[in-house]
Amino acid sequence: MSLFDLHIHSTYSDGLDGPDSLIEKIETMGLDGFALTDHETFDGIQPMREWLAAMKSKLIFIPGIEFSTYITGLGEIHILGYFPSGGIEKLAEITQAGKKYRIERAGRIIDCLAGKGMKIDGDKLLSQKDKPIGRMHIARELVAHGYFDEPQEAFRKYIGQGMPCYFPRRQLSPEEAITAIKEAGGISSLAHPMFLSKTGNWAIVEKFIDTGLNCIEYFHPKISRALMLKIEEKAEGRLLLTSGSDYHGDARDKGLGFYGVNEARFQTLFPTIRLLVRK
What we know:
By secondary structure, the chain is of the alpha/beta class. It is built from ten helices and seven strands.
């Protein structure tokens, strides 16, 4: 069965694999195609295209992005954008603003951690001004310095939402991200919406749909089977379904080759490239 993973990260944001390594792993896992959805940046799109051509890969490739947005009282909401027909250049302003804010936020987190006795090489991280520095970069540095055994421990104790050194992302609303994607000719999807485990939160999705949300991610490592079935039920006839591993390359990432959409769903999502799906 054909499978297309629509949520993958590279070294151009907080993934550990460059384009060549990702292509090799994706092909090894038997996928037929994928979307590169780095945080706040399209910088990996052209290198990925070049590597696909150089490696003579037959993988179907969808340029994408993941925007981190924020709702007061609820927290972070992630919005995926897919651009099968181009248009990423229209989002240069919003992506540059996102990178700038991430660097500022990372500096605040690093200072907070230092105040609690956990000093890392902040200068090294913050010097990468062309990269959207995120909490995962900081978590990996904390592990490298011996403060934690694995990145998720750093999130649970210090830099996760509600923890002592957590600072909210920029105040970009989900509606702003959805609108920006739509105006650039892209397709938007609500990413890993675990917050929908609380029934009352479904009203928020109605606002997103009114704004122009196209899809919702229903099959993802962090989504329970019960929530997956609920999303399928609620989305029927209203939102298309996307799925992806949210692969970053860490040891915990086991979903590459497992999470994704089949050929039928893929063709519904991206009908303009239907004839390109390999057999």
